[in-house]
Amino acid sequence: MTDTTAYLVLLECPLCHHGYEHEDALRDHLQVDHSREDLANFVVRAVEERESVG
To answer: Which segments constitute the C2H2-type domain (predicted)?
Structure first.
């Protein structure tokens, strides 16, 4: 009999890089632990980086 190992892939917060097992947990974390301004700044930086690459 062979052993099979399953790995849980965590959803990572793009702002602080904490991992969460479920989308709802990540959403709750973003809502409670990060301000709207932090989230908006992250999105703006991501768009600017994407545009500068090509």
So the answer is: 11-39
Query: Alpha helices, DSSP H only, in 1-54?
Result: 23-33, 36-53
The helices-and-strands tally (H runs, E runs) of the chain is 2, 2
Residue 1 belongs to a domain = no
pLDDT by 10s per residue, the chain, length 54: 677 777 888 999 999 999 999 999 999 999 999 999 999 999 999 999 999 986
pTM comes to 0.71
Residue 17 CB-half CA count within 13 A? 0
Range of the domain at 24: 11-53
Number of domains, the chain: 1
Reading the block at residue 17, the tokens are 């890089």
Could you tell me if residue 36 is inside a domain? yes
